[in-house]
Specification:
two-stranded antiparallel ribbon
Length: about 325
Amino acid sequence: MLQAKDPHSPFPKSCPTLSTSGVPCAKGVAVLGVTGTGVAVPGGGGVPTSGVLCTPFSLSCTMAIGEELRSGHFWRGVLAELAATLIFVGVVLGASAAPGPLAPALAGGLVAGGLVCTLGGPQANPALTLALLCTRKLSTLRGAAGVLAQCTGATLASAAARAALLDDTGLVTRVSAVGTAGTALAWETFATFQLALAAFAAAEHTAPQAGLALGSAVAAGALAAGPFSGGSMNPARSLGPAIVTGFWDDHWVYSGPVLGAVLAGLSYEFILAPGASREKLSACLACRDVALVETPSLSPSSVAPPAEQQEQGTA
């Protein structure tokens, strides 16, 4: 998802200059993804390093990476990703013991909304993390560490669920007999597209509003895609059970969430967002700083008093 307005979140609101060569990283937003099903939530980027240009293997780039790795915010963010994904996947897998897609969908939606309102920043979904990377809202280092933490959390939750449940057949998301693998891929892509679109659009809202929007999107996507693919919308949710059970049939279907999330992120940032413009898209494609050409919008952050804006920018 994207960043909910939580001043206590361990996720900083701007990202370090590690994502593109020779250009400072644009001020960014982060995301939370949760689902067994898979959701997105507001998060943050990294440590502000404005004015520093990062070229491949340059001294400034190496120093920026070192500073990030020594940052308490960075490691708190990584731990929050692991914990949020473990909680989300664990809740969804527990609900998967019930027959039908209704219980996992409701459980995923409720826990996703709860995580947005409490932790506020983790993405808990590799598809959403990659969407942030593609829209230049997250640094490469933070994104890679986040994806690793998410997959680790999902695997731990899957191992615990398999040990606790007598029947582990419901843990794995799989293509159903209702359709083909192609049908399942299409539904996973569509369901994650609507989830990621809700995540990007909800980024400017406060935590309760963002939690309601994202939780609803998770539940809706799981109910829609559940009969065809299990309604994963989250590569980590599908990867964890596959690792602990060894069931990999048609697992390529669950690359669909990555495609759906990236398409949603690009569509929102460069077409649907209030500050979208052709100049912003051109800047992104040319690996220039998007923030330099971003059109101001009447969002809660843009109409805040100057003192509040400064506080938000340095939080």
